[in-house]
Design brief:
Blueprint: H1 14-27, E1 42-51, E2 56-68, H2 83-92, H3 107-120, E3 124-128, H4 131-142, E4 147-152, H5 157-166, E5 169-173, H6 178-191, E6 196-202, H7 214-223, E7 227-231, H8 246-250, E8 259-263, E9 273-277, H9 279-288, H10 291-294, H11 300-314, H12 316-339, E10 351-357, H13 359-371, E11 374-375, E12 377-379, E13 389-394, H14 401-418
Parallel strand pairs: 2-11, 4-5, 4-6, 6-7, 7-8
Antiparallel strand pairs: 1-2, 3-9, 8-9, 10-13, 12-13
Helix pairs in contact: 2-11, 3-11, 4-5, 4-9, 11-12, 12-14, 13-14
This protein binds 4'-deoxy-4'-aminopyridoxal-5'-phosphate (PMP).
Residues 130-132, 135, 156, 158, 202, 206, 231, 233-234, 263, 265, 273 line the site of 4'-deoxy-4'-aminopyridoxal-5'-phosphate (PMP).
């Protein structure tokens, strides 16, 4: 393939250009819909009308209230702004207008980092203004030439970009396939040239709804003396009886994971990201990652929001919400299975992908659901293989049983009218 200046294949190769020009043009009414409310159990979106003949759409000027199964608001905290947030705006303004290393650290940042480390059960933590940049800017401080990264094939774009920026050697293992991972690791150890070998994986995969087999992964990494970088964007707050993420879910001591990364944009309903682990790791990320010294600090009102969210999750209200999320997820997954559709992922995963396989069915399903008052996200290539488009439902603790039933009724309508049940052509899941 053609290479760009950095020596990587360009993001948009001719095939992707073809897809974006001819396929996305037909399905683009699925995407970029502006919203006009907070991402609560319901969400208000701007209504669009598509002209199928000309492949265009226009906004009608009307607003549509939908049941919201499209935001990563797993615990339902996203729509709430508690009083400490307004107090932080009054005291510090919206931005510190500086990096953490310069004059950008407020007592709220320090309190947040201490609270987060206690919440996760590790020695220390450092927070950043953006989750995506937490990966892209911290990985180059942790891995580099001489390091081999063994990366899950379904890792998020920010992890891939971080590894590329780090100029680390990367070998990709099949999704959650520990035998393949072990084979690659044993081969790499036999080469004898790598200073360090780091496994890069996620807790819950946002396109598949799968959960990392953490116990077995930690045992493997100990046996072969590897390190583990774990992105908990979709699992921190959402997984485990105490909402501490996949370590909590798999009953693995958090200290067994070398680098815990996470974001505050999902369960915690705010913005930003973190790296947590040993005090030495956090010192290194502050010193060698680019974010601490070159990017503006997390806005203080966001720190206040995350602090409130962490304390809520750690208290009785958090317990109630984690239980509600668990119940909603189990109920929704069971009802979808009863409909005879193909649903991916782990039973406990709040990301619930319903397979529709083709772009056209994805676009039609999103549109039918939207017209019937349900907001759900369609995902396809390049986030998934070309023939594996899906509708992604995100569960939240905020939905009542009646709301879920109403949503499932609309899904059933789409399943019937768009032919989404599996047949001999689309085999049931293994
Ligand atoms: N890691 C993973 C696994 C993600 O799914 C995402 C975003 N969805 C990010 C990192 C980036 O986080 P943010 O959106 O908070 O910048």
């Amino acid at each position: 393939t053609e290479k760009n200046r950095e020596g990587y294949a360009p993001l948009y190769n001719p095939f992707e250009q073809f897809i974006s020009r001819y396929v996305y043009r037909r399905v683009r009414h699925c995407f970029n819909t502006p919203i006009c409310s907070a991402p609560a159990a319901e969400i208000t979106i701007m209504e669009r009308q598509s002209d199928d003949y000309n492949w265009t759409f226009r906004f009608t000027g009307r607003k549509l209230k939908c049941l919201n199964l499209s935001s990563y608001n797993y615990l339902g905290l996203g729509a709430t702004s508690p009083p400490p947030v307004a107090a932080a705006v009054r005291q510090y303004g919206l931005s510190v207008c500086s990096t953490r290393a310069e004059l950008g650290t407020t007592p709220l940042h320090r309190e947040l980092e201490e609270t987060l480390a206690r919440f996760l059960g590790v020695e220390a933590a450092v927070v950043f203004g953006m989750g995506f940049a937490t990966n892209t800017l911290s990985l180059p401080g942790l891995v580099g030439p001489g390091t081999l990264a063994l990366s899950d094939e379904n890792n998020h774009a920010s992890l891939i970009m971080g590894l590329r920026r780090a100029r680390a050697a990367v070998r990709v293992f099949r999704h959650n396939d520990l035998r393949h991972l072990e084979r690659l690791a044993v081969e790499a150890i036999a080469e004898g040239t790598w200073r360090r070998i780091v496994i890069v994986a996620e807790g819950v995969y946002s396109m598949e709804g799968t959960v990392v087999p953490l116990r077995a992964l930690v045992a493997l990494k100990r046996r072969l003396r590897l390190q583990l970088y774990l992105d908990e964007a979709h699992s921190a707050g959402a997984m485990g009886a105490r909402g501490r993420g996949v370590c909590d879910h798999a009953r693995v001591p958090p200290r067994d994971v070398d680098v815990l990364m996470g974001t505050f944009t999902k369960s915690f309903g705010a913005a930003g990201g973190y790296i947590a682990g040993s005090a030495a790791l956090v010192r290194r990320v502050r010193a060698a990652g680019h974010a601490h010294a070159h990017a503006a600090a997390m806005p203080p009102p966001v720190c206040a929001q995350v602090l409130w969210a962490l304390r809520t999750v750690a208290g009785p209200e958090g317990e109630r919400r984690i239980l509600a999320l668990e119940r909603n997820t189990a109920y929704f997954r069971r009802r979808l299975r009863e409909m005879g559709v193909v649903v991916l992922g782990h039973e406990a995963s709040p990301v619930v992908p319903l397979m529709v396989y083709t772009f056209s069915k994805m676009a039609a399903t999103v549109e039918v659901l939207r017209r019937r008052g349900v907001a759900a996200v369609g995902v396809g290539f390049p986030a998934t293989p070309l023939n594996a488009a899906r509708i992604r439902f995100c569960m939240t603790a905020a939905h009542s049983r009646a709301q879920l039933d109403h949503c499932l009724q609309q899904v059933e309508y789409a399943v019937q009218h768009l032919g989404l049940r599996y047949s001999r052509l689309t085999p049931p899941p293994p």
